[in-house]
Design goal:
The protein is mainly alpha-helical. It is 67% helix and 2% strand. Strands 1-2 form a two-stranded antiparallel ribbon.
Length: 241
């Protein structure tokens, strides 16, 4: 049989092959049309095996197992954790900036405006800190920092979905209850992270939950200290007197 070249990596392929044996690209590459692009976008969200909607459901039911299976080799089964985090955070950032949901402030000082418009930076900052403290407190699991970073990305992405679907509507319906809603959100997140981490690290014991709650508390202490430090620097040096 005559062979042709893969259009992606130029490896030789046989006419009967459906996929390139080197890079995995389909061999029947066609010219792009708007119909093909629309199908690919829809497929990315709804694919039964690894679409984003499938991932969101799986993370709601058993997040620790999803993260553990991914780091143990089931990479085709689930949507990439970092792509997932970036996509859902982009959507949540638009919502947060539209309704001032990060600070809940109507003030127009540069710090409050910046925080409300850059919710994504807070999420991206949270993720490696969560991974670090989880890795530090669950060293006996023998998982490395990168593997805990995957877990943190999945958990933080699902937290962001919860924020967009539940927290944002509640803030819109109850606009004067920013502080209680914020604290309720933090409590739900702390227990979700504890559940995720103990299953991921295979430490389903009371001490595992305690360690995870400690990690969650440390993360929020660091984040709020950074925020307060930024406010302090601004009001000390740049605020109109």
């Amino acid at each position: 049989m005559n062979s042709v070249e893969c259009l992606n990596c130029f490896s030789p392929i046989l006419p009967a092959q459906r996929f390139c044996s080197d890079c995995g690209q389909k061999t029947d590459t066609h010219r792009l049309t708007m119909g093909h692009i629309g199908h690919d976008v829809l497929h990315a969200f709804t694919h039964t095996d690894k679409g984003m909607f499938h991932l969101i459901k799986a993370l709601a039911i058993n997040p620790g197992t999803v993260a553990r299976e991914y780091v143990e080799g089931a990479r085709k089964k689930y949507f990439n954790p970092f792509s997932f985090l970036i996509l859902v955070t982009a959507i949540a950032t638009i919502l947060a900036s539209s309704f001032n949901l990060v600070t809940g402030s109507t003030r127009k000082d540069p710090v409050s405006v910046f925080l409300d418009k850059h919710y994504n930076l807070l999420i991206f900052l949270n993720t490696p800190i969560i991974a670090f403290f989880s890795w530090l407190l669950f060293r006996k699991s023998r998982k490395n920092f990168a593997e805990f970073l995957v877990m943190a990305a999945y958990a933080t992405g699902e937290r962001t979905v919860f924020f967009a679907l539940i927290v944002v509507p509640l803030h819109i319906i109850f606009p004067h209850n920013h502080i209680p809603l914020t604290y309720a959100n933090l409590i739900v997140w702390a227990f979700y992270l504890a559940w995720t981490t103990t299953v991921f690290a295979r430490e389903n014991k009371v001490w595992g939950w305690v360690k995870s709650l400690i990690a969650s508390a440390l993360v929020h202490v660091i984040i709020y200290m950074l925020i307060f430090a930024v406010y302090a620097v601004y009001y000390r040096n740049y605020s109109p007197r």
